[in-house]
Amino acid sequence: MSPLAVSALTTLAEDNGGHHPSLSPYLTGFGALGALLILLWLVTRFNRD
Fold first, then answer.
1. pTM of the model
2. Three-state helix/strand/coil letters over 1-49
């Protein structure tokens, strides 16, 4: 990898650390948990053998 590419990737990685102010980890986690629980409920309702 060229030194120019390495320096560009390093600059991008250090810029704000990848943390967006509007993304809450708790909101994201509980939203994903809620979506998975809804999917689990749907699967168990329609899986009537």
1. 0.52
2. CCHHHHHHHHHHHHCHHHCCCCCCHHHHHHHHHHHHHHHHHHHHHHCCC
